[in-house]
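Aim 2, interim progress: modelling of the flavin mononucleotide-bound target.
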Amino acid sequence: MGDEKRGLREEARELFKLFFEKSKDVQKATAQTIKEITDKTLKEVQPSKEKVKEITEGILEGIQDTRKEVGGRLEGVIKTLQELTERATSTVREVITGVVEGVEEVSEKEKREECLKYIKERRSVTFFDPDREVPDEVLKDILNIAALAPSGYNLQPWEVIVVKSRDKKKKLREICYNQEKVEEASANIVIIANTNAAEEHVDRVLDSWVELGYIKEEERDSLRETILAGWKSPERRKRKAIRDSALFAMSVMIVARYFGLETHPMEGFDEAKLKRFLGIGRGKLVPLIVAIGYRHPEKELLPRAYRFKFEEFGKIV
Ligand SMILES: Cc1cc2nc3c(=O)[nH]c(=O)nc-3n(C[C@H](O)[C@H](O)[C@H](O)COP(=O)(O)O)c2cc1C
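Predicted structure of the complex, ligand included:
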């Protein structure tokens, strides 16, 4: 390997790693590296097939070094670059443009597939690793992200109590009809539907709408009345609070997957006992509890049971 060749390659590799470190985004880092190296190459030397190979090989090496950190996501990018290196017959600029586009496509597709994976791979996991704790900060991150879930008039009628201490989990297990997973999971998120959320949250919600220009100050009072009217009857309060809390709970389960965690939703518990145990007041209901933790490394889950197909549960009209 000549000195100049090694120089370009090494530069590309180091640049990629630097850009990746800054953005944690393989697509951006690759595009940025290619741009810098190409500009430099075009200025300094004649574009040639050989040159393109050197550049892409350097970037490839950088990606391979970084791969361990971020796992399989980079496989597609590496493949694209390898293929382009092999077929590099046109000018540097054309090839590089192709590389950037390829990386963008691969990266976008991977992002979408990853998102689908979180939904497809979610299971009600029965076996948690009793020795692995989920740090409080991770639990808070999950709950804050899940709180981006939608709710009627953005009233967010949910609350949670996270049961994590050993003695409290033991007691909770009894209340959950002795379900073992309650104690084995690192924590149990008690999802609480607040049937008084409209009165308690409406002003904060309206403040933010006025601040953000969704509505004018003079529209505020009549909208407040409309919102509260929707929550008048006990039946409606209950329905809205439970509906939105369930959407929140689903988000918790999906976001947990992003953090490499598993969950198990549970309705099997004595609600009256639970409310006494945790001091959950009147006007609040517990639609479900979500156990959360790391999957047990050895125990196997049964395959996913039958799911009704669209033809059975839906129609398009
Ligand atoms: C609201 C709700 C309550 C549930 N309650 C329990 C429960 O108390 N105990 C249990 O073992 N599984 C419970 N499940 C889990 C379901 O049995 C499980 O979601 C279903 O069988 C489908 O399996 P999957 O989630 O692995 O796809 C509950 C699920 C939901 C959505």
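The chain has a mean pLDDT of 87. The chain has two domains: 3-120, 136-313.
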